[in-house]
Specification:
Layout: E1 3-6, H1 14-25, E2 30-32, E3 39-43, H2 47-57, E4 66-68, H3 72-78, H4 83-92, E5 97-102, E6 118-122, H5 127-136, E7 140-144, H6 157-164, E8 170-173, E9 183-186, E10 193-196
Parallel strand pairs: 1-8, 2-8, 4-6, 5-9
Antiparallel strand pairs: 2-3, 3-7, 4-7, 5-6, 9-10
Length: 206
């Protein structure tokens, strides 16, 4: 049965955030709000967490997971950035964008795209996830909370708790956080390709 944390959308209670972090660190899988929509997340060193996300969303191993990072310094530890990419991404973050980039050796091999050796990264703007990342001290491995038979991501915490109670360990609810997933920009070939148009304006990368 999943724990349910009802937190303030701008100033989330430290106790609730701390409890959610403990769940992540102990191998749990959580649903949490971002600046685009709800996401499923686990710690980077949790192999079973990744598999649970794949099962819940019915995805295959080709799915690009995202490392949700607290800031640019953290992001730079996990992906390779040249000067042009650095400037372009810096101008768009924090915000509702996911960037696909070549991974550094800091990223566990099992989290990489099998052929491209790439991984998704993003820096969200939502106050709750920013506090969660700050307390966690490392990125959260994440995927949009879009269920296999749904056309849109889930947006209400209590419904997520009701529907996924038996397959996740916690829900952080701070009210609705939008329907659109992030805009995805693939930089793996050295130039930007918008592969999904979402909440972020794609114009700077087209």
């Amino acid at each position: 049965m999943a724990k349910y944390f009802d937190v303030h959308p701008v100033d989330p209670q430290p106790r609730a955030i701390g409890q959610a972090v403990e769940i992540l660190r102990s191998g749990g899988l959580i649903a949490y709000p971002t600046d685009s929509c709800f996401a499923l997340g686990c710690s980077l060193d949790n192999p079973e967490g990744k598999e649970r996300i794949l099962r819940i969303r019915r995805l295959d191993e080709k799915h690009h997971f995202t490392l949700v990072c607290a800031d640019f310094a953290q992001l730079g530890q996990f992906v390779h950035l040249d000067n042009a990419v650095f400037r372009a991404i810096k101008a768009a973050t924090p915000g509702p964008y996911t960037f696909i980039l070549p991974a550094t050796k800091e990223v566990p091999r099992r989290l990489l795209h099998a052929k491209k050796k790439t991984v998704g990264v993003r820096i969200p703007e939502h106050p709750v996830v920013r506090e969660l990342l700050k307390a966690m001290g490392e990125p959260i491995l994440s995927s949009t909370l879009l269920l296999p038979d749904d056309e849109e991501p889930m947006t209400e915490g209590w419904l997520i708790k009701d529907q996924l109670d038996h397959v996740i360990d916690a829900v952080i609810d701070s009210g609705e956080c939008g329907l659109e997933p992030t805009t995805v920009v693939d930089w793996s070939e050295g130039y930007p390709v918008v592969t999904r148009v979402g909440a972020g304006d794609p114009a700077p990368f087209e």
